[in-house]
């Protein structure tokens, strides 16, 4: 079987070739210069104390040494692929300790690639809001890592009308005082601007909302990935050749969005929503169907790559090897059926079932409480092909 040889094509990540032969470049394991395992959010190595930072241009979390004779802020990257190049921390690291991404020393920018996308951030005079903002930024950076690794375009509003920006808004639900000045913020997307309510970073408020909406799964990372799905529909499908196949699979997005959401919240999803959608909310409108499916695609690719990079095995099977052909129950007439995605799904079913069993052994809910119908698999395959078809970055 032919493997998905274009997943992530064009990424500037130097480890790209290794990642392609599995799922696409998702979250990986990282190592300090001293040999200790370090994690994506770390700012220093617990073993040797060296500062750590993520270099988005290279896709690497690396340790640093101070640059001799240079400004105190300048650091020399110790990863062998970076050849002791000079970097400095993003301004949000030095001012609020909320970022560990780096900026090349020769660039004039104060902020890293991720933080430059911020249009609005919360009031940083309140320590609680700073901590919740940090949680949002962690989810945003993790999402951007995977998007960059997949070779997807990321640009700011300053670069053009279809650029991306974030409004991270405080929310009066965070305050016990009913006279709080903050409005109630809504998470959403509009024309390239993603709004994230800070309340989604509060675990108790998020769990309260999950129970009220009868959802099996609600995470901050899932929210960011979902809203990114709206953005990439706007960027890659709206008015482009992929729109025809999108409508064949997801439906006609020209149906009234507000009316569709109102009907969904008043009457609930169709009784048979699981036959066609990844989640109940996905049944509300084609835009939401795409965004939900996009978020699931990101979950799948990132988790599989992490498991594969960690050499996990389930049922004696090494992840990353195809075992069967794609055999959908329904022929929806789309062009170029996603035959190269079947082995990814095969591994995902193995891994997600194993994760669910492990969680149950710990008394926790399922890590992935979803069943993917044949139609949902086709939709995931459509997104896989859409991502793989993007031209290399810089072209």
Summarize the structure.
With 395 residues, the chain is an alpha+beta fold.
3D shape = globular
Largest sheet: 5 strands, antiparallel
Sheet with the most strands: spatial strand order: 3-4-5-6-7
* Structural class based on helices, strands and sheet pairing: alpha+beta
Spell the H/E element sequence.
HEEEEEEHEEHEEEHHHHHEEHH
C-alpha Rg (nearest Å): 21 Å
Helix proportion range: 25-40%
- Total count of helical runs of at least 4 residues: 10
Separation, N- and C-terminal Cα atoms: 29 Å
Beta-strand percent range = 5-15%
Quaternary organisation of the protein chains: single chain
Q: Name the average pLDDT.
A: 84
Please give the domain count.
1
* Number of E strands: 13
Low-pLDDT segments, ≥5 res: 1-25, 177-181, 321-339
Descriptive report:
The chain has a five-stranded antiparallel beta sheet. It has a four-stranded mixed beta sheet with strand order 8-9-11-10, with helices on one face. Strands 1-2 form a two-stranded antiparallel ribbon. The protein is built from ten helices and 13 strands. It starts with 15 loop residues before the first helix and ends in a 7-residue tail after the last helix. The protein is globular and about 65 Å long. The chain has 395 residues and is of the alpha+beta class. Helices cover 35% and strands 11% of the residues. Helix 5 packs across helix 8 and helix 8 crosses helix 9. It has one domain. The N terminus is likely disordered.
